[in-house]
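For reference, the entry.
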Amino acid sequence: MQRLSRLATRRFPPSGGGYTTDQARELAILSRDVGRQIGLLIDRQGRVDMLIVGEPDRILIPELPRARLGETRLRGLRLLHTHLSGEALSQEDLMDMVALRLDSVAALTVDEFGGPERLHVAHVVPVSELSGPDAKPYDVLPSVRWDRSEVDFAALVQALEDEFGRQERAVAADKGRERALLVSVSGAPRIVQERSLDELAELARTAGLACPARMIQRVDKADARHILGKGKLQELEVLCLQTGAQIVIFDQDLSPSQLRNLAEATERRVLDRTQLILDIFARRATSRAGKLQVELAQLKYTLPRLVGKTPAMSRLMGGIGGRGPGETKLEIDRRRVRERITKVRKELESVRRHRSGTRDRRAKAGCPVIALVGYTNAGKSTLLNTLTGSRVLAENKLFATLDPTSRRIRFPREREVILTDTVGFIRRLPPDLQEAFRATLEELESADVLVHVADISHPEAEEQIGAVESILTEMNLAETPRLLALNKWELLSPDQQEVMRRVYPSGIPVTALKRQGLTPLVAAILGLLPTESQTDPAFSAVPAADSDADPDEDVAVWDIEMGSDVVQ
C-alpha cells in the first residue's frame, strides 16, 4: 500500500511514452508483485487523478464525473495501465476510451520477472460523415519497446482538440440545427423498425433537428436499466462521436429510470418518442386552448419523472414520532404539478363549454359541418385552403397545425356548410395527448360528414389509412358518413393508380393544390349532406370561423361561390 501511495504521488511527463524509465520500472514491478493490472488516470498536468488496482486480466474504471466540456470534447485524462500476459490493447480498453472520452489509453506489458516490455498506445480520432461507414473513432499506434516511445501526448491532445473544435463549429453552422441520433429497440422485424424510424426522423425534422444516423436493435426483452445491451450502448457512444450527435432519441417510450441512466451513460440529452411529440406540440400550439392542452400533457408526462437529487428536509411520515420537520423539495414540486394539472383541466373544461355552445348555435342554424380528418401531413390544411381561399398554415411537416380551424363555404345549389380542419392523427399517439386534445377532437362528434384525407403517395399509405380508421372507430365515429379522399394522386404512376383504384374502390382521387381536381369530391360531399338542411337566412349571424377565436372579437366569414369550372 505504501508503494502504491508513492506511485500515486508521482508526476508523469507528457512525452517519451508518458513516463520516465524509473516510473515504468516501478509500475511494472509493482503490478507483477500484486499479480494484478494497475492503472493510472493522469491529467494533462501529469498528476495522477486516480489509481486503480484491477484483476489479473482486466481493469475496471469506476464512474467518473461528467466531462468538463461539450459532448464531442475529450475528458482531459489519459489511462496508463499494465498488461501481465503480453497482450495488446483489448477491445474493452478501446471501448472504455471511446465511451469515457479519454485522451488516450496506453498498455505497458510486463514480463515474468516484473520488467517492462512493450508499449501499446491508442487515441480517439474525430470521425466525420465523410469518413465512411466503417471508420473507427480511434487509432491504434504500432507497439514499440517500452523505452523507445516518442509519443508527445501534449501535442497529440492539442491537435485532437483543435480538430474536434472545427467539427463543433461545422455542426453549429449546419443551419443552426442540433444533431440527433435515432434509436429503435424492439422485437419487431427490422423493416418495421426502419419504417417507424422514418416517421421518427420526420418528427425530428419538424422539431428542427438533423438526423445523420440511426441505430436498430432487435431484442426479445429490452434491458430494464438502459433498454440497450452493454455492447450496443458502447456502439451508441461511438456513433454519437462519429456523427457529432448532441441528442439521442428513442422510438420507444422510456421509463424515468431508463431516461436517467441513459443520460448518465451517454452524457447527452436523451428523449423518447413521447417527449419529441410533446415538444413539437408545444412549439406549434398558438391558441389558448392548444397551449392549455399541450401544457396538460406535459405536466402529466413530467409528474412521474420528477427526481429529488438532494432532499433538504425529511419526508412526511405517518405514526407517532415519525413526522419529519417538513416536505422535501421533490414532494413540493409534485404537489405544485398536481395543483397546476387541476387548474389547467378547469380551464380546458371552460373551453369545451364554449365550443359546445358554438356547435349548438351552428346546429340551430341548420348548417352542416364537414370535418377533414386524416394522418398528419396528409394535406388537410392544403385542401381547406384550396376549397375556401383561406391562408391556414400548411407546411410539409408533421403536425404543422394543431388548432382546429373552421371556415364557411357556399357550395353549389346554394348550400352553405362549415368546413373544419382538425389536428392530424399519428400512430402510437401518447395517451396523455389523446386526453388533452379531447376538446379538439370533440369537433368531430358534431360533424355531419367526415372527409378522410390520405396521402396516397406515401410508402405507408395503407398503414396510415388503417391507423386513422382505427382511431375513428375508437372514438365511436364509425357510423358517421365518411368519404376517402386520395390526395396527391398526381404523384402516382399509371400502374400505381390502377392498383390503388382496386384497393380503395370508393376512394376519390384528388389533388389538394388544384381546384379543378376537386369536382368529384365536392359532388360526393353534396350527396351525403342532409337534404332538409337548406341555407338559413339567420345563418349569417352565426360565428363559424376558428373555434378558438375570442367570442368578443369579430369573426371572419368566408363565403365563396364555387364556379362552374369546379363543379358542373
User: Anything to note?
Assistant: Residues 376 and 424 are 4 Å apart (CA to CA).
